[in-house]
């Protein structure tokens, strides 16, 4: 436990101006981010007598080892910078909302040439219009099915769209009038985009204009004795009205507003948000959080609005935002919301009328969500705590291992050797810190040697980051460390988290575990312990879990530790081991499948990915490219004669795939090579 006086700034160092500050721990990891109207006054509160601090604040300042700050000109800039740093560094002592369930949204991909309507979950993407979130995916599909009569926007995947364009025939929705079939040219890109924009306008609550337009067209068609068209328009109007009826009217003045309510106790808080557009509830979502910092209801509201609108486009911020309490001062938050929307935002607490009644409904939902969350989590917390205590007791550790890292080796008959590292914190998987390794220095089924190399690389990186004394590693540093015979280093599974981007990011391996688990028995455990001893690391425990009898092995012990089959500690070790095994197998299979999809063009030296794509696009398939002459290949931009001759020679040597045959008729089917 650190003494806050050891890193307290000297008198006069802290400016008396608005700004944002960061507390870091001994490993340089950002553990708390905050903003202040006056940095001097706010930071002075953290360095008073520990007995006068809130217990959570006391834990934070004793965990920290340094503090730094950035001065800004206005409180609005401080709000923006605070949000950016929380997203980037994910500090452990900041309020972090997590969805209490995975809510689906209706998405329109306006960033594509031919926008697509679909159900989406997860993080939002730039250029995509979102509506919702909704409680159930089937509710979205019912609404979309009704609206496609009037706004026939495509809903097919990219593969189906491309296939229909190639064969010149639309899919079933195109035949029954629920898609305008841009894939076969029934409408051009501009007309299809107009349909998508009208679809978005209707979903955003601007329904009256579309209904009036359709009714006017229906009357004109009837007057012109176009009775079939008038009947079709009548059905379209009814379909839109049925879609609107699925959302009850809650505000009679057709208000666009978001209502935020909070239910909290001393340890946790639940936030519920109702999205009202055109007086109707268009979406609902909820968050829960641990109150790891001392925070008021107004502070919870401020954090919730930051998360809700921080990455949204301007049209997602409504004209009114109704909350249970206003932060003091409220002007910076209101100005920030206005900047996100591009117009004024009425941020206030409803006092009377139907909006206050609706706020009570949202508050009841928040209370129910908190009660349900606590009911579910009570057993989980108890079980996880008991499991960690059992592991500590079985392995002779001084305290429960709050961070566990597990390593596993995977290969296919000695080829494509890879390794995985998974991380569990407080008994829960922390997937953003998973890592995977390629092992190229040797081949063969030598799991012991592979385990020694992987553990050495992981903790060698940790020592290097610790020696940097808080200075972040750059991408060049990381690449240079892994340029030896061991091959590339860790590769994140998917895109790197916000706090691990190139340039300004925390080090990947700067945070050490209390326990290392290896998938294997005594030899693998000995290899991992030897790797740590060679690096001089003696404060990290090591154990192994053998698959055959689920025995726990410790370094230097001739006999394993046998945990009861009903032990929660054994169950947690099995979960950690199985997750590492799954992650390694996934990486190994992915590498193998990429190798099997290799193109005959890969054999041409000096032919990059861009020119490969240009060749296949020019001729339409590898089959047609194989039939082309050297002169025809030279017609592709960027391909010279020597390259064309190399391409022709490589394709001549590669045996073409056997054509597919219809076993019933003997007919040779279409060659799909090159797709």
Topology:
Blueprint: E1 19-24, E2 30-36, H1 39-46, H2 55-63, E3 66-71, H3 75-89, E4 98-99, E5 105-108, E6 117-120, E7 129-131, H4 137-147, H5 158-167, H6 172-175, H7 189-203, H8 208-223, H9 227-245, E8 257-264, E9 268-277, E10 280-290, H10 297-309, E11 320-322, H11 331-341, E12 346-348, H12 353-395, E13 403-412, E14 415-425, E15 428-429, E16 435-438, H13 447-467, H14 475-481, E17 515-519, H15 522-534, E18 541-546, E19 551-553, H16 568-596, H17 609-619, H18 622-627, H19 630-634, H20 641-653
Helix pairs in contact: 3-11, 4-9, 8-9, 12-16, 13-15
The structural class is: alpha+beta
Please describe the biggest sheet, giving its number of strands, its sense, and whether it closes into a barrel: 7 strands, mixed
Q: What is the typical, i.e. mean, pLDDT?
A: 79
End-to-end distance, in Å? 60 Å
What would you call the quaternary organization? single chain
Secondary structure tally, helices: 20
The tally of beta strands, per DSSP, is 19
What's the gyration radius in Å?
30 Å
Helix percentage range: 40-55%
Overall geometry comes to globular
Task: Outline the low-pLDDT stretches.
Answer: 471-506, 657-675
Strand content: 15-25%
Care to describe what's here?
The protein has 20 helices and 19 strands. With 675 residues, the protein is α+β, with helices and mostly antiparallel strands. Strands 13, 14, 15, 16, 17, 18 and 19 form a seven-stranded mixed sheet that branches. Strands 4-10-9-8-11-12 form a six-stranded mixed sheet. The protein has a three-stranded antiparallel sheet with strand order 2-1-3. The longest helix has 43 residues, at 353-395.
């Amino acid at each position: 436990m650190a003494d806050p006086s050891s890193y307290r700034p000297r008198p006069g160092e802290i400016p008396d101006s608005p700004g944002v500050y960061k507390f870091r721990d001994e490993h340089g990891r950002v553990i708390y981010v905050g903003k202040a109207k006056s940095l001097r006054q706010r930071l002075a509160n953290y360095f008073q007598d520990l007995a006068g601090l809130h217990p959570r604040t006391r834990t934070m300042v004793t965990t920290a080892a340094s503090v730094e700050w950035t001065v800004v000109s206005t409180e609005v800039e401080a709000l923006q910078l605070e949000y950016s740093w929380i997203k980037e560094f994910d500090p452990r002592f900041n309020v972090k909302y997590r969805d209490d369930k995975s809510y689906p949204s209706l998405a329109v991909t306006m960033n594509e040439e031919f926008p697509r309507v679909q159900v989406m979950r997860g993080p939002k993407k730039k250029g995509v219009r979102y509506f919702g979130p909704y409680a159930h995916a089937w509710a979205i599909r019912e609404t979309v099915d009704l609206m496609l009569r009037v706004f026939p926007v495509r809903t097919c995947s990219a593969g189906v769209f491309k296939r229909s364009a190639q064969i010149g025939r639309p899919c079933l929705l195109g035949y029954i009038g629920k898609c305008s079939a841009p894939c076969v040219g029934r409408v051009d890109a501009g007309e299809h985009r107009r349909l998508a924009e009208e679809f978005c306008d209707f979903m955003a609550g601007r329904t009256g204009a579309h209904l009036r337009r359709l009714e006017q067209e229906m009357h004109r068609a009837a007057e012109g004795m176009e009775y079939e068209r008038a009947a079709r328009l009548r059905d379209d109007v009814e379909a839109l009205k049925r879609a609107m009826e699925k959302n009850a009217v809650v505000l009679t003045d057709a208000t666009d507003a978001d209502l935020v309510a909070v239910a909290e106790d001393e340890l946790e808080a639940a936030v519920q948000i109702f999205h009202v557009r055109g007086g109707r509830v268009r979406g609902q979502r909820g968050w829960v959080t641990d109150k790891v910092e001392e925070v008021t209801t107004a502070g919870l509201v401020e954090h919730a609005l930051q998360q809700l609108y921080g990455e949204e486009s301007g049209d997602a911020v409504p004209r009114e935002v109704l909350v249970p309490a206003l932060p003091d001062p409220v002007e910076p938050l209101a100005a920030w919301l206005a900047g996100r929307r591009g117009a004024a935002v009425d941020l206030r607490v409803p006092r009377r009328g139907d909006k206050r009644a609706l706020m009570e409904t949202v508050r009841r939902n928040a209370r129910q969500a908190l009660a349900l969350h606590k009911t579910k989590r009570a057993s989980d917390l108890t079980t996880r705590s008991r499991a960690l205590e059992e592991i500590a007791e079985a392995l002779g550790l001084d305290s429960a291992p709050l961070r566990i890292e597990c390593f596993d080796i995977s290969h296919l008959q000695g080829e494509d050797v890879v390794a995985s590292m998974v991380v569990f914190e407080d008994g829960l998987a922390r997937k953003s810190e998973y890592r995977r390794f390629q092992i190229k220095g040797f081949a063969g089924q030598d799991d012991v040697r592979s385990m020694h190399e992987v553990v050495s690389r992981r903790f060698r990186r940790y020592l290097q980051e610790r020696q940097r004394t808080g200075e972040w590693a750059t991408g060049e540093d990381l690449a240079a460390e892994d340029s030896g015979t061991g091959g590339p280093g860790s590769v994140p599974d998917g895109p790197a988290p916000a706090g691990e981007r190139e340039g300004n990011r925390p080090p990947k391996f700067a945070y050490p575990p209390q326990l290392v688990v290896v998938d294997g028995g005594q030899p693998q455990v000995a290899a991992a312990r030897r790797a740590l001893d060679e690096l001089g690391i003696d404060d990290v425990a090591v154990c192994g879990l053998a698959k055959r009898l689920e025995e726990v092995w410790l370094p230097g012990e001739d006999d394993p530790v046998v945990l009861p089959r009903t032990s929660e500690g054994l169950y947690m070790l099995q979960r950690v081991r199985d997750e590492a095994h799954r992650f390694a197998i996934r990486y190994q299979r992915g590498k193998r499948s990429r190798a099997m999809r290799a193109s005959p063009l890969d054999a041409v030296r000096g032919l990059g990915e861009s020119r490969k794509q240009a060749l296949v696009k020019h001729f339409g398939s590898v089959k047609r490219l194989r039939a082309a002459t050297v002169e025809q290949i030279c017609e592709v931009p960027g391909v010279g004669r020597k390259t064309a001759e190399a391409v022709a020679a490589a394709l001549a040597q590669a045996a073409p795939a056997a054509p597919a045959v219809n076993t019933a008729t003997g007919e040779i089917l279409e060659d799909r090579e090159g797709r």
